[in-house]
Structures are given as C-alpha cells and as structure tokens.
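Q: What would this chain look like folded?
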Amino acid sequence: MIEILVLLTMGFFVVMIIHTNQMRLAIVYLAVFSLLAALLYLLYAAPELAIAEGIIGSGIVTLLYLAALKKNRVYTVGVVSIPSRLKVEDHYMYTLEGSEALKDIRDFFVRREVEVQVVFLDIPLERALDNTAYDLILSDDGKQITAHTDEDNYVMVELELMIQMRGFGGSIQFQRTSAGTIPTHGAKKEATE
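A: My prediction, written as structure tokens:
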C-alpha cells in the first residue's frame, strides 16, 4: 500500500516537473522525486540503491543543477503604484500578478528562457527610475500600466512588438526615455552573451 502511495506521489512530481515554467521549482521537484525514488528502493529492500539515489540523485545532481542555474539570467522588474502608496497591500500585489500585462511580460521572458523577478516598490517613480537594480520599471496608476524603458533597449522593443502582435497593445503603454535614465544592464548582459 505504501509503495502505491509513493508511486502516485512520484507521478505527481513528474507532472509538476514537466508543467512548471520556473526552472528553480523544476529542480526542487526533481530533488523530491529523487528522494521518493530512494524511499521506494528502501521499501523494495535495496538499501545500497537507496543510499546512492539519495546522495547522488537528490544531493549532488540538485547542487549541480542549482550551480548551473545560478548562471541563468534573471530580469528584475520593479513595480511602482501611482499615486505612491505608503504600504503595498497583498490585495494589490495579487491583482497585479494576475493582470494580463504581467502575464504577457512573464510569457515573453519565459520564451526567451530568462527568469523574471517582480519586485513591488514603496518608493516614488522618480527614485525607482534612478535605481540601477531594476531592468524594467512598471508604473500602475489604476487604469493603465506603463513600462518605462530606455530607447536603446532592444529587449523592450521586442516585448512591445510581441504585445502588439498578440492584440494586448492596450494592456501596457511603453514610455521611452533617453539613454542613461533607465538602467539597461539586462540588455547589456544579453548583448555580451
């Protein structure tokens, strides 16, 4: 009976590994799958295989994948609400996370195999635009989401074209500024690779 439960749980994690869009989660699911395989070997009275699977499969392989993934590109998106709220509420974050605009941005970067990290900011737009820690700044005034980009950032030109081609041109407005106003270290990273 326990073997069936372990096998079903392993099947669940296989489905989760296949269908996740985030590579870090896929690695975690793979490590759990490997631990479940080690438990299954133990249940079938193969302790040597269980030890090998536990050490190699869920330990060493997971560390190697995570080390390789550390070299993966991460695109940081800063989100500012206008007028600037003193405290970003959970409801606001959940609403914006579920918006078509953010889904389009995530979809664009997932297709480019770049991980997106969304950071909600409690600072005014001007300070966010001056901060070099963000590759893209989104401002939300409650009616329209505006993507503030550098006019030389070719990644944002591709994103704008993709959104227009999919027919969601009204979900995000792009505002271009002169070079140096918006940080472009994400585009520079891609240009050097």
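The chain has eight helices and five strands.
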